[in-house]
Design goal:
The complex is a heterodimer of chains A (299) and B (334). By secondary structure, chain A is of the alpha/beta class. Chain A contains 10 helices and 12 strands. Chain A has an 8-stranded parallel beta barrel with strand order 1-2-3-4-5-6-7-11, surrounded by 5 helices. Classes of the chains: A alpha/beta (299), B alpha/beta (334).
Chain lengths: 299, 334
């Protein structure tokens, strides 16, 4: 399978106009083939983008992008359940399932499995393939050895393997909204306070060292994943899709850089330098891939 | 007060002696894991060998109790045989059910041992009727252990919509993150909760005291909390640490160091249709297990007979430590 770049869903609560303009620019300029849209983190946010959804979909399709609609990653309340049903039961879009409840609605229809689903081994890969998955984005903590083992069998099962190569790393989900908590509110009374932080809210240790990032009910890394140096090895392991997770700045430059790297127009060192200069401002990490603490960075 | 359905009391055992203690104290069912990475409490010195598990099953069955084997972590590609062996061993020993989290292992168990009971681990993170029913349909699971993120009202609703039994946590340690979906420990230590069954490993915990007698606790390279004299020093877990953000300082960003105690909600849970009440703590001492199990035995028996038990013993078990009803009481927790 020809390697391709994919653009993961926007995970933060951006201003709806900013969200729309970002996707317009992606549609017009970004050298990615597959674009994921849809609210993954919070069912309360989803309606905020509804008024622009049709325009964004039309523009992306016109730009020749393959569109995938990502579902919520966690479903507890009735609002979550309705949001999940609205997306996963619709046959209008190709769906990326991020919670098992999506599979109930998909019922064998071809779909993608997102990085919030636990696919760690051959038996799971085989199950998801048999259940209609066409591509699987592996959990971000998968080490190289595990990726390679799954890469060996993915092709014969008709599965395209995907790995996130750039952006803050999703680390945990909760029923509680930590953005609301930080502002002495609750999830129900949040008044969308998360819109203040287009790349999430940084948590520092008591000594002031940046540590984690809060994005509503999600906890992310403070570091920014960068697997530019591992791209060749990933491709050789059988990974054919490389996901860039959007940040509020530098994403277009990062896409261009990874595109050039994938086409062997630049070296990984040049790519890393370019991402450093033009990408989002956070220290790089690649520890998970090397079976080290996830925040670590190996040159 | 009318009589209530009497739920099964499911109690932890980290060792063979712990299992006997729990059974003697009145556990209907005991859950335990094999040594190694196949279960979500892979701590040094904890869990049972195959021979010990066999002995445990004999002891429990002789005393009218059941045993559940927890094989509830996620095998990484290339080492699923260890998990499959654990499932096969548990079945051949004659445990009453295997608790499974990984979807691949659920598939293996339902194909290889179709007549055996699968309980879906809390680590599978099935938090909605649709998710639970998907597992029921695909693997014929008989029971789901619910994530600790639902309110009692939501549990009641779920009970009415799913095809299997419900087991709910009522007491013990409570993590803030959705189970089976937390990579925080691996991010900091290189050891994974999902893949290795490890959360905040002791090997990476450090305590340092400064000249003002403040006790700083850290995990790996990161400070998790700093306590002044007299403050209760909790074990440093990332989701119960104190942090700073731009507009708020030294606050528990996720949750305070509390433990779950649903004693007051027991009758509500029993009315909600919960089949089994689960006590956390395979890593706890025998004395603790004995105290908690005996107290819960008495409370559950009296509630189910329509009585109003004296629950002061149970409430006292968390005295000195802060306790919470977590997400169970109301949505305001979120």
């Amino acid at each position: 399978m020809t390697p391709q770049l994919t653009l993961g869903p926007v995970l933060y609560n951006w201003e709806p106009e900013t969200w729309r303009d970002f996707y317009f620019q992606v549609a017009d300029e970004a050298p990615v083939e597959t674009v994921f849209i849809g609210e993954v983190i919070c069912s309360k946010r989803a309606p905020l983008f509804d008024s622009f959804l049709e325009d964004v979909v039309t523009r992306l399709e016109k730009g020749g992008k393959r569109l995938v609609f990502s579902t919520l990653a966690e479903v507890t309340s009735n609002i979550d359940r309705r949001a999940m049903e609205r997306v996963a039961a619709s046959d209008e879009f190709f769906i990326e399932a991020n919670d098992t409840s999506a599979l109930w609605y998909l019922d064998g229809r071809p779909h993608a499995i997102g990085p919030y689903m636990n696919v760690y081994n051959e038996d799971s890969l085989e199950f998801f393939a048999g259940n209609g998955a066409r591509s699987i984005c592996l959990p971000p903590e998968m080490p190289a050895s595990g990726i390679a083992a799954l890469g060996k069998m993915a092709g014969s099962l008709g599965i395209e393997l995907e790995v996130q190569v750039y952006g803050r790393i999703p680390l945990a989900l909760s029923a509680r909204c930590y953005h609301a908590r930080a502002h002495d509110r609750t999830k129900d009374s949040c008044r969308f306070i998360c819109d203040r932080d287009p790349d999430g809210m940084v948590l520092n240790t008591l000594e002031g060292k940046p540590f984690l990032t809060i994005n509503g009910i999600q906890t992310q890394s403070h570091t920014c994943l960068n697997l530019a140096g591992e791209l060749d090895e990933l491709a050789a392991s059988g990974v054919s899709r490389f996901r860039i997770s959007p940040q509020s700045t530098g994403t277009m430059a990062v896409i261009e850089t990874f595109h050039a790297l994938l086409n062997k127009e630049i070296t990984w060192a040049e790519a890393s330098e370019s991402i450093q200069e033009r990408g989002f401002d956070a220290p790089f990490s690649n520890g998970f891939y090397h079976q080290q603490p996830g925040y670590e960075w190996r040159e | 007060m009318t009589q209530l359905f009497k739920p099964e009391l499911v109690c932890p055992a980290g060792t063979p002696a712990g299992l006997r203690t729990a059974v003697d104290a009145g556990a209907d069912t005991v859950y335990c894991g094999f040594q190694g990475p196949t279960n979500a409490r892979n701590f040094p010195g904890l869990n049972l060998t195959i021979a010990e598990m066999a002995g445990a099953v004999t002891y429990a069955h002789d005393h009218g109790a059941k045993v559940l084997a927890a094989v509830n972590s996620f095998p990484t590609a290339g080492r699923t045989e260890i998990w499959k062996d654990a499932i096969d061993s548990a079945v051949s020993i004659g445990v009453d059910a295997v608790i499974i989290a990984d979807i691949g292992m659920a598939g293996y168990m339902s194909k290889t041992h179709p007549d055996e009971r699968i309980h879906l681990s809390v680590q599978a993170g099935a938090s909605s009727p649709e998710a639970v029913n998907f597992y029921c349909r695909k693997f014929d699971i008989k029971r789901v252990v619910l994530p600790r993120i639902l309110t009692v009202a939501e549990i009641k609703k779920l009970h009415d919509e799913i095809e299997c039994e419900i087991e709910a946590f009522v007491f013990g340690n409570i993590g803030m993150m959705a189970e089976g979906r937390c990579l925080l420990t691996n991010y900091v230590t290189g050891q994974s909760t999902n893949m290795d069954g490890v959360c905040s490993p002791a090997s990476h915990v450090r305590y340092e005291e400064d000249e003002d007698n403040n006790l700083k606790s850290s995990l790996g390279e990161f400070t998790i909390d700093c306590l002044s004299c007299g403050e209760h020093a909790g074990y440093p877990t990332i989701c119960k640490g104190r942090y700073n953000t731009s507009h708020k300082q030294e606050y528990y960003a996720f949750e305070e160091p509390v433990s779950l105690n649903l004693t007051r909600l027991l009758p509500d849970l029993m009315r909600a249709g919960v089949t089994a009440l689960k006590i956390e703590g395979r890593q706890r001492s025998r004395a603790y297990v004995k105290a908690v199990v005996s107290a819960f035995r008495q409370a559950v028996d009296e509630y189910s007979e329509g009585g109003e038990p004296d629950i002061s013993d149970l409430l006292a078990l968390t005295e000195g430590h802060r306790e919470t009803q977590g997400a169970f009481r109301s949505k305001a927790w979120r």
